[in-house]
């Protein structure tokens, strides 16, 4: 089998001349890496009281014929593990490496069957590693025509520069029991491209024959968290929402770890079950947890996903209903596959391995068409984009610091629709200034702290423009920090969505521009600067392109929005499609009649910058009720025109709420970090001298101290009550906790540089940046108080 016969998205594969393995490592912080490889990754350590040493590849048995016997499949096995310094921490059951390297290689991950191919026959009730694993070329006591041959090993790198490894071979079976198959198989391990601490285990299956082939794919592994050569006796929980499994070390373990097995990936598994190997007969029937409608074990059965379990539901329980420790393993299953000649099928499972308390953010980006439900996206359609992050960790906390989304050409974002939520139900508006129209980048500071299974969502709407290509790819970047990992740095996760576009043969340009009349600017542009008292002019133009097949039949209105920080508009002129100008009493046109190819409608007006203006003034225009070729368009949105107000030093936006969550007292004092921050911290400092930003709180001042509805206050017995994580030189510093004093505490010990307009410091004040201390005698209630912000020029 050639490496290029299956398109797996990697184009730099090569076969190492020595056919020896390499190991991929994904940094996790705190001297930990998530490792992945085929074959052996642990080395011999003569001190049996210590973990075995990490072995950085070099397994030259990788293409050796795999052997199956009983529960064991040997050679070329997948392994996911943790590298802790120079030591190896297993996630899968492993025999501890001895002094014989050949024995070690043969036993690597030997009790995990990995991918299995099973006939799609509802009469199949038993699936063992020996009989159905795709790897073996030799079977003990089974049909000799059931085998893989022509095995080869390849190395490559993904789009993020992370290592990828694959084994390819020919799978042929000719058995009444195990199926008749002629397939080419690729087994692949690579990093999840959207999450730096998750590994994807994949299988591609190609049908080179002239006949249709039908089968069901399974995947199973015997897990053992950090224990070498021993059964692990751990817990198996459901992740909820039919997403997969959580396996955790029991509470009395000296080192506690968590495994996450999820299907939230393209071509992920459909059914899953936890497996307690100590409760099963030998050899293990990996189909045991899948039951049909008659509650019988069957290849067409369902697993734990059918129960719609809540997050954290234990899949094995004692007689009193509490979670039960078992010899942990798991099995996954996909819906049956029918593979026509020349077709390829793809199967994926992800695994994250981490110490307990480590966060595991899972991100996604999706869209819905709000204009129509035909499945087609056309020019003028309004799309709603949803960016979601869920912390799949166990005993963890993740600070959601920032989202960056570069809006591609062909989409015009409606900045009035940007919203965020940490419960998926109650959304708050995000300022329009979060979007930079010049570089087309949306930046949102969510300010949320996400504990286990918590999610946060950011949404916005955008209109498909006439310049859109046949496919629009949109990628969001999610930034956050693991709050319970010492020294953790901010990590980035990615999520993308492709939007197919169908052309409407209607091309248009919708622009809004501005110029400063006081500064005698002659040309309109997308942005300008102004001072209080300056007169600025706006020009809004909707034009049907000269090459457009269809005209704009009509529209109900074209609205040019103006904020309150500008005075009443005057000198308003509307130029119609006929080229004639009409004086207008307001900036709305009213009914727009037909606009043919090459024609346009223009609205111009002037306004004066008032003393209420500060920071950045962002405005756009809307064409409502448009009709093209008998199709009703959604509201079309112009670009944003921006006016930056100069020579006004000030704090233009401060957070509305610092939320420390809800807590129960148990007779002792309590410290808690904030779980979310609502609002932004935006600074305007156009003058060149450096400056400081400080926050103050006085718990003795009745006008600012925190009180509940019964006017109870928080005690001063512990000294300072509020603390801030003060950075030294930048927001990426880990920071030190400083008390918030009545006369102010800097958010950064070094000054900020001057000459900055609309400086967004929201990342400094997000979740995990504030701490509260409460005495044991604190009375119940919802406490509210006031903090004060100051901007001070440095000496």
From TrEMBL:
The cross-references to InterPro entries, in alphabetical order and at most eight, read: Fim_isopep_form_D2_dom, OmcB-like_DUF11
Which Pfam family is an annotated match for this chain, by its short name?
Answer: DUF11
Note down the stretches annotated as region Disordered: 354-375
Q: Where is the DUF11 domain?
A: 369-480
**What stretch or stretches form a coiled coil here?**
none
Polar residues bias locations: 355-375
Q: Which domain of life is it from?
A: Bacteria
**Name of the molecule in the record:** Cell surface protein
